[in-house]
Amino acid sequence: MAPLRSTIGSYAYQAAGVWRVAVLASAAFLLTALSNANTDGTLDTAIAKVVRHIIKGDQCAHEYEEARRTHYFDLNNNGRKDAVVLMAIEGHGCGNNYGFHMAAFLNSGKAYSPVGHLPIGGTWDAHPDFENVAYRDGQIVLQIKVHAENDAACCPSRKGKAFYAIQGGKLVEADRKKK
Fold this sequence. Notes:
This protein is mainly β and about 180 residues long. It has 2 helices and 12 strands, in the order βββααβββββββββ.
């Protein structure tokens, strides 16, 4: 029987009704590289580390990368563009559940460091507008939709706003600042 090739460089053989997997060195290298991510200081590797933390322990959860949006603001008034990243995580609990998360990263000029991440919505919860993110008066402002009484899980209809800030070196949900 010919081996079946998977996407991570391993081969599976069926012998006597039992699947046997022989993992190539490339798969081991890939796993090592992923476990050491964020050593180069790029935003992509910092995001990958946060995503791994969010999905840790859930074998089915994964980021829907095409939905990810990154917005740049100077979050700590040091003249550098820091990053606010909105992402969608799907497949929680091996089901059709999804969650929206926001992470903030400060730019030191040499590397992006995560300040924190928070769940910001999902199934039967708020749906943030990934394209419409602002930074005003020290707050990250998201346009969101929340569920009205007869809305389906997928489709909240009531418009609103959510406010977040970096306080004490952490990303937190905040009350709306009055001008």
